[in-house]
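Weekly sync, protein design subgroup
Attendees: M.S., D.O., the rotation student, P.L. (late)

Item 1: inverse folding check
M.S. brought a backbone from last month's batch and wanted to see whether the design step gives back something sensible before we order anything. D.O. pointed out we never logged the input encoding, so this time it goes straight into the notes. Structure tokens as presented (390 positions):
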């Protein structure tokens, strides 16, 4: 359903009504709520009803709208009978329940788009973590900034109450903690949009992540790695494909054969919406990427997905052994394929704006880090000049 279509539907149903049905635009859809103005004071009621912008969900959207209009009429009748418009008349909204519903909605959305819901696992990890911390559910408006700071302390290992005979509990990585709080902030922002709270309790909470030097492979190292046997063909092919396209591992996991098309010159192109940013990427495949694609068609058989990339630490183990066997003395992770793609392009003279677009960045700011990596290559080249013993 388009935004314009929803506006037209609600305009007709809200005509001459004291209780209005409103909506907030959320990712891939709309969140519905009731609103009433009395004596200049606006009151909202969260309905926990979401419509999808996907045209294939038309029937489901219509059923949900019928339910909302029935609730609207019920409240309209209460107003006409001089009964109060009660914000909590439907039900109180509890934090853990709300978080779980958001996670479930994201799962359902992935499935409707033919994606793998496993990639939404961070939401469920956060749900379990904060459920263990809280012990029991509480109203979402009762979640405080101090409560979340205390939760952060249990994650970073600084909470004295978690101390054991062996010392403080081991802290989780700062990057992981940052991901957890990104989920929580998204949850609270959604609650603000739904009219449940006025301000996010996560405001002001930051996670400091130390910037590590970004590793990449130069041209000779990449050739060397490709010629080295790897214990997992799927990981090997996905890594090489990422070096040729710059796609993140999350995009490779969701990549389908149907998202690869050919033009009149028989060149293959990928057309996808990137997982992390939502930016549309249209990438031409070079000869090496096409060779990987052909091999994956044989490996994957009837699967609609191009790659079958495992989760957990297995990828790290495979990459570590593969790189070690190649003789390359660098700490190369799977994500280094994306760094390699960017630095190789820049070292070949491709301008930073074009590289930014190929990476799917919305601006060149995040791309500039790769320019610094190329500077390292240039410095190493100067250092390699022969000494003249002057």
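Designed sequence read out in the meeting:
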């Amino acid at each position: 359903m388009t935004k314009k279509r929803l506006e037209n539907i609600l305009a007709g149903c809200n005509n001459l009504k004291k209780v209005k049905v409103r909506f907030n635009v959320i990712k891939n859809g709309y969140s519905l709520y009731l609103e009433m103005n009395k004596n200049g004071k606006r009151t909202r009621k969260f309905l926990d009803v979401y419509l999808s912008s996907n045209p294939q969900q038309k029937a489901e959207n219509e059923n949900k709208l019928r339910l909302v209009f029935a609730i609207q009429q019920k409240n309209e009748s209460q107003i006409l009978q001089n009964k109060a418009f009660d914000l909590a008349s439907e039900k109180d909204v509890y934090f853990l329940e709300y978080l779980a519903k958001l996670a479930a909605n994201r799962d359902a959305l992935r499935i409707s788009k033919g994606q793998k819901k496993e990639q939404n696992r961070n939401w469920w990890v956060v749900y379990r973590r904060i459920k263990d911390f809280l012990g029991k559910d509480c109203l979402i408006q009762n979640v405080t900034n101090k409560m979340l700071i205390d939760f952060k302390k249990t994650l970073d290992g600084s909470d004295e109450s978690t101390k054991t005979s062996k010392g403080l509990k081991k802290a989780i990585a700062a990057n992981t903690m940052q991901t957890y709080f990104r989920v929580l902030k998204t949850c609270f922002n959604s609650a603000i949009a739904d009219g449940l709270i006025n301000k996010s309790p996560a405001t002001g909470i930051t996670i400091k992540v130390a910037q590590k030097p970004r590793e990449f492979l130069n041209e000779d190292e990449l050739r060397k790695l490709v010629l080295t046997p790897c214990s997992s063909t799927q990981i090997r092919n996905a890594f090489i494909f990422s070096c040729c396209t710059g796609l993140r591992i999350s995009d490779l996991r969701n990549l389908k054969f149907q998202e690869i098309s050919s033009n009149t010159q028989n060149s293959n192109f990928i057309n996808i919406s990137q997982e992390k940013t939502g930016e549309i990427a249209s990438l031409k495949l070079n000869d090496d990427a096409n060779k990987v694609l052909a091999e994956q068609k044989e490996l994957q058989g009837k699967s609609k997905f191009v790659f079958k990339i495992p989760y957990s630490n297995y990828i790290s183990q495979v990459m570590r052994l593969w790189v070690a066997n190649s003789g390359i003395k660098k700490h190369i992770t799977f994500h280094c394929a994306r760094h390699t793609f960017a630095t190789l392009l820049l070292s070949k003279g491709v301008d930073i704006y074009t590289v930014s677009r190929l990476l799917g960045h919305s601006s060149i700011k995040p791309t500039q880090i790769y320019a610094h990596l190329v500077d390292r290559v240039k410095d190493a080249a100067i250092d390699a000049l022969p000494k003249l013993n002057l």
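Discussion: Residues 76 and 285 are 58 Å apart (CA to CA). The first strand starts at residue 20 and ends at 26.
Action: P.L. to compare against the previous round before Friday.
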